[in-house]
UniProtKB/TrEMBL annotation:
Organism from which the protein derives: Saezia sanguinis
Name under which the protein is recorded: Phosphoglycolate phosphatase
Keyword Hydrolase recorded: yes
Alphabetical list of Gene3D superfamilies matching this protein: 1.10.150.450, HAD superfamily/HAD-like (3.40.50.1000)
Gene Ontology molecular function terms on file: phosphoglycolate phosphatase activity
């Protein structure tokens, strides 16, 4: 897949769909803090690995590296985007080195009761994550749910024109929609980030805020940032109760 999809290209591809294609439903699931509780199992280790990588490759102190990691994550949605854009870091090497995560499978916190709803949802299921594809596949395999998903759209798939475009990039979402030759209205994004959901809603996706893996105090803060979400759930098992008025 080459080039960058515009909203007009996505709309044109939808117009050319046969009637059966217009009935397709596509579920996009964020990975961390949506399909599993990532805070203790992954985030603390990834943050530490990223800080160490930045300190080593940019020759800065640990504190300076940690400040850069957080600053680029807040500005771009992913630390890697800032490192590539401003420092010429090799993206593949960074993703590999910062997601080695020995012992990840033993630390995973999987709620199988919640996950059990996924195969009962009508339509295709994709994982749409700012993490590397190999990391996502590793978690899906450990959870025993890889076979429920059509595919994984990871950080590598957000790379074009030598730049990464992670969530909440609307360009990347349009690119995904065009890749499947569907309209945004045929997609539901399930994510724990209000910013990601707001961007998706603006281009026509249905959106679900999955807040169950956030502490109550954090939920109250995040709730104030919600914009035009289709539904709010505390667990994935609540998805079947939602009516998204599929077109």
């Amino acid at each position: 897949m080459s080039g960058c999809c515009t909203r007009y290209q996505a709309a044109a591809s939808c117009k050319n769909q046969p009637p059966a294609a217009l009935k397709r439903r596509v579920w996009l699931f964020d990975l961390d803090d949506t399909l599993h509780d990532a805070k203790d199992a992954a985030f603390a280790y990834i943050d530490k690995a990223m800080t160490a990588y930045i300190a080593q490759h940019l020759s800065v102190s640990t504190q300076q590296a940690d400040d850069l990691r957080l600053r680029y994550w807040q500005r771009y949605g992913a630390t890697l985007t800032g490192l590539v854009r401003h420092h010429g870091i090799d993206g593949d090497h960074f993703l590999h080195e910062t997601h080695l995560l020995p012992g990840l499978e033993q630390r995973l916190r999987i709620d199988r009761r919640q996950l059990g709803v996924i195969p009962r949802l009508k339509g295709e299921k994709w994982v749409y994550t700012n993490g590397p594809r190999a990391y996502a596949l590793r978690i899906l395999k450990a959870a025993g749910i890889s076979h429920w998903f059509t595919g994984v759209w990871g950080m590598e798939q957000s790379l074009w024109l030598a730049q990464y475009h992670p969530k909440p990039s609307q360009q990347a979402l349009r690119r995904f929609v065009a890749h499947l030759n569907i309209s945004p209205a045929q997609c539901v994004l399930v994510d724990d980030s209000p910013g990601n959901l707001a961007a998706a809603s603006q281009i026509g996706l249905k959106t679900v805020w999955m807040c169950g893996y956030h502490a109550p105090a954090e939920q109250r803060v995040l709730r104030r940032r919600l914009k035009n979400v289709s539904a709010v759930i505390r667990g994935l098992d609540e998805l079947q109760k939602q009516d998204f008025h599929w077109r």
